[in-house]
Amino acid sequence: MRYDPWNILRRLTDSYIRAYCVFEADLSQPRPALPPNPDLVVRLFRGDEQLQSATEALIPAGLTAEDVSARMHKGDLVAVGFVNGTPAAYTWTRFGSTLAKEIELVIRPRNHEAIQYDSLVLKPFRRHRLQFAVAAPVLDYLQQAGCTGTLSWVNLLNRPSYKNQCKWGKKRIMTVISLRLPGMKHRWNTALGARMASLFTKPGLGRLVESDTGQVLRGVAEGPARRTGNLQRPRSKPVPNSAGMQLADFIAPKPCRACWPF
Ligand SMILES: CC(C)(COP(=O)(O)OP(=O)(O)OC[C@H]1O[C@@H](n2cnc3c(N)ncnc32)[C@H](O)[C@@H]1OP(=O)(O)O)[C@@H](O)C(=O)NCCC(=O)NCCS
User: What b/e string do you get for 42-57 counting C-beta neighbours within 10 Å, with b at 16 or more?
Assistant: First the structure.
């Protein structure tokens, strides 16, 4: 195992202070081409009819059937990468507000945006560029379904994931510094680069919403985030992706008007 000073620093500081960068992907921009990986098959799952197949693929990857079911009932999309038939990586997308557990805030997508969350490459398969290989078909799917961008949040000290966001040309639009000192019940968060309220709300304000596991949380879940401050972006028209992705099993895009804040 390689010595990773970023990871050590993260482990030492994580209980007290965290810095999460929020990245915006503009789907109208060309994405980097991927080296071909003939061993990899990526499948996208969405909707009740694919719940069973998604659960079968994700349980070996460490998720519970309850988690998978709760997420898919919310209309989430999951991409699973299989290497020689074995589940090796996954990544989730939500079409609405999402609890960012790490900073105890609810992130709200703006119009025509989706949220990319919970990506994992299983340990034996890491360092083979699978994070991007599994996410690329998702971006294609979203683009074809009329989405213009995505939001994701990444720990500043998670260098592999951070590097990948930058390599894919995503734009860092906010950094959230999150503090919890001994004795503090809730995290204290502050935003750099943009106003916190342009993307996040605190759980505890407004309507009741459900967490992934069905647990009821208080939070504002409805409606796109307000377009304020430096996060305003003209709505770009989706253009075809030029990356020329090889996808063995691509399920046709199914825009979900009920879930998307269009
Ligand atoms: C983050 C994660 C998804 C990256 O997946 P991956 O497909 O193995 O990453 P890649 O092979 O694309 O590597 C990306 C870069 O990080 C580097 N890297 C990967 N693992 C590394 C490690 N343990 N230590 C240091 N650098 C590492 C790679 O060398 C590469 O850098 P380069 O472009 O300069 O060569 C994977 O490590 C993971 O699942 N981690 C745990 C869960 C997690 O952090 N999820 C992301 C939440 S946002």
Answer: bbbbbeeebbeebbeb
Whether 97 shows a pLDDT value over 60: the answer reads yes
222 lines ligand 1 (CB under 6 A): no
Ligand 1 centroid – CA 121 distance (Å): 8
Model confidence over 204-248: pLDDT tens digits? 664 434 444 434 333 333 344 544 444 554 444 433 333 323 223
236 in a structural domain: no
Domain boundaries, position 166: 18-231
Average pLDDT score over the chain: 83
Please give the distance of CA 82 from its chain centroid, rounded to a whole number: 19
CA–CA dist 158, 220 (Å, integer): 28
For the Cβ of 129 lying below 6 angstroms from any atom of ligand 1, the answer is: yes
Residue whose token pair is 């699978």: 130
- Give the residue-averaged pLDDT of 101-125: 97
Q: Is the CB of 37 under 6 A from ligand 1?
A: no
Judge contact between 175 and 24, C-beta under 8 A: no
Q: Is 128 in the pocket of ligand 1 (CB under 6 A)?
A: yes
Q: Is 233 in the pocket of ligand 1 (CB under 6 A)?
A: no
Q: Does any domain span residue 79?
A: yes
Report, as an integer, the average pLDDT of 78-94.
98
CA 120 – ligand 1 centroid, Å: 10
Distance 214 CA to ligand 1 centre (A): 30
Residue 6 lies in a domain: no
167 alpha carbon – ligand 1 mean position (Å): 12
- From CA 225, how far away is CA 5, in angstroms rounded? 36
Domain count, the chain: 1
**CATH code assigned at 85:** 3.40.630.30
Residue 1 has pLDDT above 80, yes or no: no
Asked if the structure places residue 109 within a domain, the reply is: yes
